[in-house]
Design goal:
- By secondary structure, this protein is an alpha+beta fold.
- It has 25 helices and 22 strands.
- The protein has three domains: 181 residues, Metalloenzyme, LuxS/M16 peptidase-like (Cytochrome Bc1 Complex, Chain A, domain 1), CATH 3.30.830.10; 213 residues, Cytochrome Bc1 Complex, Chain A, domain 1, CATH 3.30.830.10; 195 residues, Metalloenzyme, LuxS/M16 peptidase-like (Cytochrome Bc1 Complex, Chain A, domain 1, 2-Layer Sandwich), CATH 3.30.830.10.
- The relative contact order is 0.14.
Length: 734
């Protein structure tokens, strides 16, 4: 539907308003104090960090060399995480495969997948593992103390004592293996990560990211695909796999993070007694060298596969700069501000320049905080012939900003939004967020607290912004920086078929080279692996996984009461909660008054509100006003089914805002401006926004095709599924 809306745009009506307000109240937290040395740990530093309102403790384990940080927060949602600095030296995906594999059984928990058992039987609020370019992390969280220690126990055993040393089937299952079911069948590659990365690289933006980092960082870890290139994954051997674990998964190369109200003494004793005391220092901590700056900027052209006839308007153009280090927090925050002010905001100068030149359907700027920061401007859905014009617009636009200055009022607005976001800390998983915030400083500056102390960063940034700091970053970090890349990634018909044919031929040649005995062994190995995968764990193996009993679970559920008022015949719900001085509001409009034909237009309205000009504001000035006065203005469509009754579907058009309490009047004035005075007859702006939304939907389908299909399935048997397809699924797109 959205593809056809450039020429006819009916009005949308909605009725029935529900207003939800969440004001604030005072809150005080009590924090415990740590002993200097305890349970094999030496206290390096104890610091009260006001931004997290807690004592933060930094320890080193004396025997093993492990580093540990604890935030003693008054939070029931206890968090444990262990991160290893992992530095692969090829595209074979060893770090990613290792992340999967350590969770496939360990010495004390020999079930095939303790992770899956915990997922079903734990009260966890977070349970995951993730691989980055330079690190692999294993975080968990739970509000139940016994469950928290169970999760910690299984994860520590997994990372330090995995079964992969003695069971090569784990690499075969999680990484790759040859599959041959009988003598007549072709040999094929199989494996969880192999298949996952084949899917990942069906998204062209993955190819863009790979080419960008490969060419910006040809000499260090960031140039390798840590997830694994499908063509390189089958080069990984069992010996290399085991050697990688031995090298990088030692406590001395680990960073252990604890958060919440679990007793610190108990946590340290548990970790020392059961795990760290079993290791001695090995003298190795991974190090990542800087990529040396280039002598001159690079220009690279690459390709990605598309179907026949799908090449028009499918080229990606990007310009990237390597600028400073991620431990220079003032610089990193300044780059985030520049991304918004130069490109991402609706009235940003480079965005407007690309729109005027007719290059691409969408543009965005991003900042990647690797050890060295990467600032990138990317245009989507362009043509290869736009390359020179794209590069000229970028460099000329940057030079103009240096000559004429960056708009101070726009900087003020973005800084205000950034400051609001930092002080809000609005997440149920605060521990996970703090772990992510502190890891860069811990990795590269040996200071686990620096990433949390944002007030110092803000103060430094505000002082710098009184000067020509941003203009200097543009001049030195972009215009005069030789460590830069102009990248063109264009579509190529038939490339996928060409790659598949080469893969099939290579496997056929390999099969032909096998002796009869080797062929029989491959068939037997395939059968054995399938039997292993299909077999259930023994009751004894399952019993090793620590589980909760009913007596460990509180029968009391948390209840959140709301006061109900009637204001001019509109129900208003209000709840007092600690929100650090922030007022949250949500306007809910009942959509049951709309016909089915009107629903996609309501969804479109959700995409447009706040991005159109109004009677009193241009869209750029409106965006600026929201930045200066609020923490955000968001629209969405949500469905509610009381008592899970699909026949009682209650869809709502939602407008959500957040604001510091003293600026609430300005927030309500701006919300009223958007709702009552948006200029929906600006067809040029409508066409621009709809084209961009269409491009975004196409991109999301390329990135997440599985979920696109999965989200469509409920539409065949539920009213809610039908509604979601009309307002956000394939029906909305078409």
């Amino acid at each position: 539907m959205i593809k056809e809306l450039s020429s006819h745009l009916p009005a949308v009506k909605s009725a029935g308003l529900l207003l939800l307000l969440i004001p604030v109240m005072a809150f005080n937290s009590l924090n415990s104090f740590a002993q200097e040395n305890i349970h094999g740990f030496r206290l390096i530093e104890k610091r009260f960090v006001k931004e997290v309102n807690a004592n933060c403790l930094y320890y080193e384990h004396i025997k093993s060399g492990a580093r540990l940080m604890k935030i003693e927060a008054d939070d029931e949602n206890k968090t444990f995480g262990i991160t290893f600095k992992t530095v692969p030296s090829s595209d074979n995906g060893v770090a990613h495969i290792m992340e999967h594999s350590v969770l496939n059984g360990s010495v004390n928990f020999p079930a095939k997948s303790p992770f899956d058992i915990l997922s079903k039987g734990s009260l966890k609020t977070f349970l995951n593992a993730m691989t980055g370019r330079d690190a692999t992390a294993y975080p968990v969280a739970s509000m139940n103390e016994k469950d928290y220690f169970n999760l910690m126990n299984v994860y520590l055993d997994a990372v330090f004592f995995p079964m992969l040393y003695t069971d090569p089937r784990i690499l075969k299952q999680e990484g790759w293996h040859y599959e041959l079911t009988d003598k007549e069948s072709p040999v094929v590659y199989k494996g969880v990560v192999y298949n996952e990365m084949k899917g990942a690289y069906s998204n062209p933006q993955r190819e863009v990211r790979y080419q960008l980092l490969k060419n910006l960082f040809p000499d260090n870890v960031y140039g390798w695909e840590s997830g694994g290139l499908p063509s390189a994954i089958p080069t990984l051997t069992q010996d290399e796999f085991v050697a990688f674990h031995k090298k990088f998964y030692h406590p001395e190369n680990s960073y252990i993070f604890l958060y919440g109200n679990a007793p610190t003494d108990k946590e340290l004793e548990f970790i020392d007694k059961n795990y760290l005391s079993k290791f001695t220092r090995g003298g190795f901590r991974a190090n990542i060298e800087d990529q040396a700056a280039f002598k001159a900027p690079k220009e690279v052209t690459s390709t990605y596969p598309v179907l026949e006839g799908e090449t028009k308007g499918k080229t990606f153009l990007s310009k990237s700069f390597v600028i400073g280090h991620n431990t220079d927090y003032t610089l990193s925050m300044a780059l985030d501000i520049l991304a918004e002010v130069l490109v991402n905001q609706e009235s940003a100068p480079l965005r407007l320049a690309f729109q005027k030149a007719g290059i691409g359907k969408d543009v965005y700027a991003s900042v990647s905080n690797y050890k060295q920061n990467v600032f990138t401007i990317t245009v989507l859905n362009a043509e290869p012939s736009d390359k020179e014009k794209f590069a000229s617009i970028v460099m000329d636009g940057l030079k103009s900003l240096v000559d004429n200055g960056v708009d101070k009022s726009e900087v003020e607005g973005v800084l205000s939004r950034l400051e609001f976001s930092l002080r809000e800390g609005n997440s149920a998983q605060k521990g996970i967020n703090y772990m992510n915030q502190n890891i860069s400083g811990w990795f590269f500056d040996n200071d686990p607290f620096s990433g949390l102390e944002y007030e110092k960063m803000l103060s430094s940034l505000k002082e710098a912004l009184k000067t020509n700091y941003l203009e200097k970053i543009i001049q030195d970090g972009m215009l005069a920086n030789p460590h830069a890349l102009l990248l063109v990634v264009k579509p190529q018909e038939g490339l996928d078929a060409e790659r598949n044919a080469a893969n099939v031929k290579a496997l056929a040649d390999y099969k032909a080279s096998l002796s009869p005995e080797e062929t029989d062994k491959m068939i037997a190995d395939t059968k054995s692996l399938i039997e292993y995968q299909n077999a259930d764990d023994s009751p004894e193996a399952v019993a090793t996984i620590p589980m909760l009993s009913l007596s460990d679970i509180s029968p009391k559920a948390a209840f959140y009461d709301c006061g109900v008022m009637d204001v001019k015949k509109t129900p208003v719900l209000c709840r007092k909660e600690f929100t650090n001085g922030i007022l949250y509001t949500r306007l809910l409009f009942d959509m049951r008054t709309l016909t089915e034909q009107q629903l996609p237009y309501a969804a479109l309205l959700s995409d447009l509100l706040g991005a159109m000009s109004t009677k009193n504001y241009s869209y750029g000035k409106l965006n600026h006003a929201f930045n200066v006065n609020t923490g955000g203005f968001y629209t969405s469509i949500q469905t509610y089914t009381p008592d899970f009754d699909d026949n009682n579907l209650r869809p709502k058009f939602c407008i959500t805002t957040k604001v510091m309490k003293d600026k609430a009047p300005a927030m309500f004035e701006l919300t009223g401006e958007v709702l009552l005075r948006s200029l929906m007859d600006d067809t040029a702006r409508l066409h621009e926004l709809i084209s961009r939304r269409c491009s975004q939907l196409q991109s999301s389908m390329n990135q997440d095709g599985f979920n696109v299909a999965a989200s469509r399935l409920p539409s065949y048997f539920s009213r809610e599924g039908v509604f979601n397809q009309i307002t956000s699924g394939l029906d909305y797109y078409w």
